[in-house]
């Protein structure tokens, strides 16, 4: 069951995908595809996963493009980003950071603001640790944190009632016994989705996305993070740029992870949203979007 929890720990925005022109550039082992919205100070939005594409973040990018040039991209091997031979030699944290920096260079930005959601928050921390001079400011949205504490510090089953737990276990067992049908995956996802939300009526909106992750990429990247002992706390204690940290009071990722980040970062603001799970823009757009827009306004030219 723990593998199931980790696999779907960081799902991405369950909004309707907005049709938009894709662009791409070549890497040594494939291509990275991306989309841009609007004009102004560049804002890179890094989606969660790992193993998820960026399609679900187009709606958020569109909203934030009212003031900033918003960029989303499909991480290597996901969506429209191509990878010649997915495996341990082509999937690692270091290579994912190289992709982000290559995207910045391709777009010819001196600096940009980065917004990382969930697992994307971990990528954002790692990128800021490696390229602090390229980050003008950072937004951590329901982040997985600066280290690997997240993998052991929550119990997703405790956020479900007994009926939901029994149903999740039943459908997970069916899948493990060989039923790999889309119907079975979607049934499991509908119960799993409820754990990420305060308002469980929103579960159908994200269940579909929970079925679309790449399990191989997910497993390889989590293993890589464990192999390297991912922890950028020391680097972030020296990161002097402004940081906005947003999390839900009823978050699947424990609030203390955000509180620890706030205590570590020299120039940070922590916003804990009441009556909110893992998706602030869905459950508390009144707080989430206001805080993000105000932060962007304060840190954009």
From TrEMBL:
The species this protein was found in: Christiangramia aestuarii
A Gene Ontology biological process term:
proteolysis
Residue ranges of every copy of the AB hydrolase-1 domain listed in the record: 42-285
The reply to whether Hydrolase figures as a keyword in the UniProt entry is yes
Question: Does the record bear rRNA processing in its keywords?
Answer: no
Can you name this protein? Answer: Alpha/beta fold hydrolase
Q: Which UniProt keywords apply?
A: Hydrolase
In which family does this protein belong, per the annotation?
Belongs to the peptidase S33 family.
Q: Recall the GO molecular function terms of this protein's record.
A: peptidase activity
User: Coiled-coil ranges per the record?
Assistant: none
């Amino acid at each position: 069951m723990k593998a199931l929890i980790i696999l779907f720990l960081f799902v991405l925005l369950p909004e309707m995908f907005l049709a938009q022109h894709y662009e791409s550039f070549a890497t040594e082992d494939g291509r990275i595809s991306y989309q841009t919205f609007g004009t102004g100070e560049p804002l890179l939005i890094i989606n969660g996963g790992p193993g998820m594409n960026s399609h679900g973040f187009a709606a958020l990018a569109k909203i934030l493009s009212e003031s900033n040039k918003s960029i989303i991209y499909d991480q290597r091997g996901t969506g429209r980003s191509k990878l010649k031979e997915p495996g341990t030699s082509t999937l690692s944290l270091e290579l994912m950071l190289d992709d982000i920096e290559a995207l910045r260079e391709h777009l010819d930005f001196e600096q940009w603001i980065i917004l990382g959601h969930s697992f994307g928050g971990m990528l954002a921390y790692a990128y800021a640790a490696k390229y602090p001079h390229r980050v003008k400011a950072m937004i951590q949205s329901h982040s997985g944190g600066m280290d690997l504490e997240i993998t052991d510090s929550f119990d997703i089953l405790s956020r479900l009632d007994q009926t939901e737990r029994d149903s999740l276990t039943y459908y997970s067992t069916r899948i493990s016994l060989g039923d790999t049908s889309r119907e079975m995956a979607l049934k499991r996802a509908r119960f799993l989705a409820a754990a990420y939300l305060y308002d469980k009526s929103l579960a159908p909106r994200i269940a579909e996305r929970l079925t679309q992750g790449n399990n191989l990429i997910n497993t390889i990247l989590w293993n890589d993070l464990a192999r390297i002992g991912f922890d950028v706390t020391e680097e972030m204690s020296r990161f002097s740029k402004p940081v906005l940290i947003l999390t839900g009071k009823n978050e699947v990722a424990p609030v203390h992870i955000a509180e620890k980040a706030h205590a570590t970062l020299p120039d940070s603001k922590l916003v804990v949203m009441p009556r909110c799970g893992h998706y602030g823009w869905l459950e508390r757009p009144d707080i989430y979007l206001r805080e993000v827009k105000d932060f962007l306004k304060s840190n954009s030219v």
